[in-house]
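quick one: LPXRUNBV bound model?
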Amino acid sequence: MFLSLYFLIVPVTARFLQTAYIDKDKIVHYTKEAVMRTVRLYHPVLKQNQDCFFVAFLRLKTGSAFMQGLFLRGDTMYYITSEASFDGAHFLRNYSGKCRNLHGHHWLVRVHMRSYALQRDIQTDGMLNDFGDLKKTLKDLCDYFDHSLIYEAGSLRKSTLACLAAEEFLLREVPFRPTAENLAKYFYDTLQAKRSEIYRVEVYETPANCAAYEAQ
Ligand SMILES: Nc1nc2c(c(=O)[nH]1)N=C([C@H](O)[C@H](O)COP(=O)(O)OP(=O)(O)OP(=O)(O)O)CN2
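yep, here:
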């Protein structure tokens, strides 16, 4: 009873003190200071050397922004953005207009991340996510499409695909009509599975035309 009260009171109070952090494995740690401030608040006679006990038990796995928000919500958040681009051709099946023709774009993909807390690793201390790491993850995905023909599954005859393949053209089939909106969702879903702090992806077909997909 006494212990369960602690496990309820300490995280809730630490949340309001906003002195917790999340490590690279998405585990929330309540800092020694936060825990001890809370412990002293509720049990002023506890000695300093007992803090390890509480710190060890106050580790919560937080894979989602929801969990982070639940335990770390404050007035402020950190945001970072990174972008990469690729050249790719596409066409819109059943579109009445010039975009039904095979044509190319210099696609720009911009990724946004947010978090209530920063990392505390030696390498990534003070970072939401290492720019280098985010840049590489995004570049790998852009490279997959670079200088390819992005086409919707079923939108080209088998014989056409065979001819294009025989010419050794790079073909990238997608299970959706390759609009900027659908590509933004594709990039979001693929990247979000790797980095849960990603909440928005923008895809520019041209410098003037942009579609975005965002978590609500
Ligand atoms: N909401 C969307 N509308 C359109 C998309 C799309 O992905 N989402 N895509 C297209 C075509 O792919 C087309 O290439 C882009 O449209 P458009 O503005 O006509 O192209 P340009 O900017 O190159 O136009 P110019 O006037 O030739 O400069 C259509 N719509």
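The CA atoms of residues 77 and 116 lie 5 Å apart.
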